[in-house]
Design a protein that fits this description.
The structure holds 2 protein chains of 2 kinds.
Chain A (H helix, E strand, L loop, with lengths): L2 H7 L2 H33 L13 H28 L2 H33 L7 H22 L3 H33 L14 H33 L4 H13 L1
Helix pairs in contact in A: 2-7, 3-4, 3-6, 3-7, 4-5, 4-7, 5-6
Chain B lengths: L1 H17 L1 H22 L3 H24 L4 H5 L2 H7 L4 H30 L5 H27 L7 H11 L1 H15 L5 H30 L1
The chains are: A mainly alpha, B mainly alpha.
């Protein structure tokens, strides 16, 4: 791939059109994949010999946890690109990532708690992974609140970009200090399942669900980014002609 | 270069001492937070010995948060910080100096009194030194993280709650290992491992923190 085509993506009109065009494709393919994955996970996969049918929530929990972390990294990468090239497109991407990522984090927490209730007896244990996920939610919230509270948009973009970068550097440190704290605390925790070598009938729906969730994230992201770009570029001619042109056609 | 930094350091000390009521408030907050727990939990030495680590660190975090709200804001409002960004000296070093002077004036009193508070929590012997050492190693990190949050929120009128939302997740490793160090030394285990971690975090935040904070200041000012 040559650099010129990447630079072209930085132009708001092109990126806006790309988002509008790609969004339905992402959405349709993600719905299809999630439907297949759900069928595979809920009906085809055999029940776990220890956890019975309760393990099936893994097909919602793991994909949302995966997307929640991927979204943060994506946000930080967009932030770095935005800071480097002062790109409005990259900042819109980063800003649109935050609420979606926060929602997936919330979903991961809720499904984790639903899973925890039958498995551990309580909805919440101070397990390293659950705790890191909760902290991730707070990092997202800090990003969103900071963006909301700085009135100047360009300053808000750059300040929150710094926060996203600091956060992405800190997430591993936070995660491992929580892990070490737990292992220092009690040698054998009830919360950690010995990882069984997962059977293929259990694995393929999971992979498909992860793909489906990723595409769902992409669909939400393109929708939000298009809206964000439209707000930012509302005074420009290309957007006005685009929208007026659409009206004329209809 | 050193001369300029010394002037900034002394100027910040002087200005902070003039606003001594702010400093006193954060100091009193530290003492009061430490005071709540023995009063509400009752006079049970074994219980107090168990909670002193987290209590100390939470109190230090709250006091730092309260004090650091004002590290950059007055200087931004009166324009002196903008002048500092315009001169030829690297902003990172200037920020570093400012943070150091703030650490001296806000955290050193906490560290000095922490020994007495620890002994009132029935901590004895070497563990008192470990409590002081833990605060000595963890407050620089807390101050640097708070400075970054203060720089990011400098344009906001009442940044307190937002600063807390930014600071607390980022300072969790320091809180965890600080509390561990105190707990280990009280229960008679060698506390050097968490202290080394705190030392490492201190070097990490002290070396990278001012760079990011300077970048945040530049964003907020221009």
């Amino acid at each position: 791939m040559n650099l010129k085509s990447i630079y072209k993506l930085g132009s708001p009109p092109l990126f806006y059109k790309l988002c509008i065009v790609l969004e339905p494709w992402y959405l349709i393919s993600s719905i299809l994949l999630i439907a297949v994955g759900m069928y595979g996970g809920l009906f085809v996969a055999p029940p776990d010999y220890q956890m019975g049918d309760a393990f099936r929530i893994i097909y919602f929990h793991v994909p949302s946890a995966y997307v929640s972390m991927m979204a943060y990294v994506f946000m930080a990468v967009s932030a770095i690109i935005g800071l480097t090239w002062r790109s409005n497109v990259a900042f819109s991407l980063a800003k649109s990532c935050a609420p979606i990522g926060a929602s997936f984090t919330f979903l991961a927490l809720i499904t984790g708690m639903l899973w925890g209730k039958p498995m551990w007896g309580t909805a919440w244990v101070w397990d390293a992974r659950l705790t890191s996920e909760l902290i991730l939610l707070f990092l997202y919230l800090a990003y969103i609140m900071l963006h909301l509270s700085i009135p100047d948009r360009s300053k808000a973009d750059r300040a929150t970009a710094l926060l996203a970068i600091v956060g992405v550097v800190n997430i591993p440190i936070i995660h491992y200090s929580v892990v070490w704290w737990n292992t220092l605390h009690q040698a054998s925790t009830i919360s950690k399942f010995a990882k069984p070598s997962i059977a293929t009938e259990m694995l393929w729906p999971l992979v498909i669900m992860i793909l489906g969730y990723t595409l769902l994230f992409a669909a939400f992201l393109s929708k939000r980014t298009a809206a964000e770009l439209a707000v930012r570029e509302k005074r420009t001619r290309w957007l006005q002609t685009l929208i007026v042109g659409d009206k004329n056609n209809a | 270069m050193m001369k300029v930094l010394r002037i900034i350091f002394l100027k910040d000390l002087k200005v902070s001492l003039r606003r001594w009521s702010d400093l006193l408030t954060s100091f009193i907050l530290f003492v009061l937070v430490c005071l709540i727990f023995p009063l509400t939990l009752g006079n049970d030495p074994s219980l107090l010995l168990k909670i002193i680590g987290p209590v100390m660190l939470v109190a230090a975090l709250l006091a730092t948060l309260l004090a650091m709200q004002n590290i950059f804001r007055p200087d931004v409002l009166n324009g002196s910080l903008e002048q500092l960004t315009l001169n030829s000296y690297p902003l990172t070093l200037i920020i570093c100096t400012k943070i150091f002077s703030f650490w001296v004036i806000t955290s050193l009193p906490l560290i000095l009194i922490s020994g007495f508070i620890a002994s009132s929590y029935y901590v004895t012997g070497n563990s008192i030194l470990i409590v002081i050492l833990t605060l000595l190693l963890s407050t620089p990190s807390l101050v640097h993280i708070s400075a970054l949050a203060a720089a990011l929120t400098v344009a906001i009128r009442y940044p307190g709650a937002l600063m807390a939302l930014i600071i607390i997740p980022l300072s969790l490793p320091i809180m965890i290992f600080g509390a561990k160090a105190i707990e280990f030394s009280i229960s008679g285990i060698d506390a050097s491992a968490p202290l080394y971690f705190l030392l490492g975090m201190m070097f990490f935040t002290c070396s990278l923190g001012p760079v990011v904070t300077a970048a945040a200041i530049k964003i907020s000012i221009d």
